[in-house]
Prior knowledge:
Distance between the termini: 42 Å
Largest sheet: none
Bound molecules: zinc ion
Structural class: mainly alpha
Number of domains: 2
Radius of gyration: 18 Å
Helix content: 40-55%
Number of strands: 0
Number of helices: 2
Shape: rod-shaped
Amino acid sequence: xxxxxxxxxxxxxxxxxxxxxxxxxxxxxxxxxxxxxxxxxxxxxxxxxxxxxxxxxxxxxxx
Length: 63
Ligand SMILES: [Zn+2]
């Protein structure tokens, strides 16, 4: 999980431990399924490469 190393600004403990209400709120928010919830960094990088390639292609076509 991406929030493993997050440190709480309220209690300075790892958010994943849920020691205070702020931790628990953040943990719940981060655990919710978002558009990138199932993606690992490699998948995000691949997505970025595809996006840049698409933009480059578009720029080449319009120039
Ligand atoms: Zn906390």
